[in-house]
Records
---
Amino acid sequence: MESKKIKPNAQEQADFTKGSVRSAILRLAIPMTMAQLVSLLYNIIDRMYIGHLPENSTLALTGLGLTFPILTIITAFSNLFGMGGAPLFSIARGKKQSHRAEEIMGNTFSMLILTGIVLTILGLCLKRPVLYLFGASNATISYADDYLSIYLCGSIFVMISLGMNGFINAQGFARKGMLTVLIGAVLNIILDPVFIFVLDLGVRGAAAATVISQFVSAAWVLKFLTGKQALLHLKRRYLKVRCKMLKDIVGLGMSGFIMSVTNSIVQVVCNATLQIYGGDLYIGIMTVVNSVREIVSMPISGLTNAAQPVLGYNYGARAYRRVRSGIMFMTISGMVYMLIVWAVLFVFPRQFIHIFNSDPELLANGVTPLHIYFFGFFMMSFQFSGQSTFVALGKSKQAIFFSIFRKVIIVVPLTLILPGIAGLGVMGVFLAEPISNFVGGLVSFGTMMATVWRKLKEPGDEGKTASASS
């Protein structure tokens, strides 16, 4: 039997074909956004403390920024399996295929473990030459190496926490999913000042606090998914990897993977180019700008991630009107939010920079790059909406293409070309982002509307349209 006996309240909460689509998305979005905010605190808090060290704070912060591409690659593999498995899990639940859903979860978990081991070994062996390749100087390499050496030892915990938490949210337990990151982040906030300042470990202390916190988060996820509260469970008999299922998971997760990998590529290209045109100072400024972007992008990311299980479930249940309603709500809400963010950043740039560093030189030189980087920021809402719709409905090829399109085809070439045009220099690096937001957002969303949207018609819709036009 495919169906399982589920408590009425839990079943009602997990059935996204009932009630308001907007309410279903917001019910997930609010705790998921809070979860992402708290999750963001893992690295953000590290940067805040490191950026205000009594000595060499800018060099230490720059060193930390140089590790971002490698940390992003770890996130990429978490997304490859987690963001690939969770939407398939939601579609299977919508079709009432409970055993298939649990098998998807088990295969995802196994691949996260195996990949985490491989990444740890490779990272520890290659970290120093890679950091130099990514833009490290002799002044910043020690800070980057110290942080990365410890962080890599806990990469498996990071991958379990990030990759498996989506299976909690996909069952409708967004508050439980929020606790996954809340527990770890609060612990990180407590441990950071102790390890960094009291024990005088500096960047090594920040990394150690993060690893311990991620271990606790991973333990929480596994406890929930194997416990009685979950509707569907992580079971030993489903841990054996099936090639066909893995192909489906990777095919859909490739979008999130490529998005993260391309982010890593962009970070590498930006840091290397900034090292040529501006040196360590502007790599530090880019570290701050990226940190601000992570903070302000978090709510829209939470909204679109929350919409994915709702859209996927309704798509699996063939409730296409509800899918259309969810897409429009996600898009309009995202645009309004990002317009507000753009205005706030334009008026109060120094206040946001000061969160991460109080060096007068960085503050004086950081305002203009921040203004340029966030110009037209609202256009990113179209990229988020188009991308999330493709992922939620299992349209892996489109999702993969637009992951590559904005970053690799637009941002990377512009980052390399613009600094040499009309004396733009370092400002050309920051200008590449807004151009990509306009072009990438319009093309991604426009393609989604021209392909997916027009096909989302329920039986009888064609007849109603014909009657209305006659």
---
Amino acid sequence: MPMLTSEDIGLMVWSPLAGGFLSGKFDRDGKTAEGRRVNFDFPPVDKDRAYDAVDAMRAIAVNKGCTVPQIALAWLLHQRVVSSVILGAKRVDQLTDTLGSTEIALSSDELALLDSLTRLPAEYPGWMIERQGAYRAEQLRALQR
């Protein structure tokens, strides 16, 4: 998303719940719920990082009195570059729950937590460019204040 942000390009998010993985119905201990992801593990995710994100989303959902999928979708909808989210629902209750994500306001702390847990690890040369350009980022932040 950093490139999309810098270039002011929108993103249409496909599989926003990662084939159900980010719904909160899958646990680290191997207990799984029903759904296509049980037999078809797609799209691929870094499970350790994804479970960390789901754990945080579960705590936020409990605090806000909503569902984990609503938090996952609300996080996406809070991203400046997200233009649209492609939704998939088999039942009316899933669609109703999904649409409820548009009513969720996440705090800056909640957004920062989810951002930190979901950030992809930097790959070369990205990490080097980021490291060498850190002073530019600081200059930009100073100008924006």
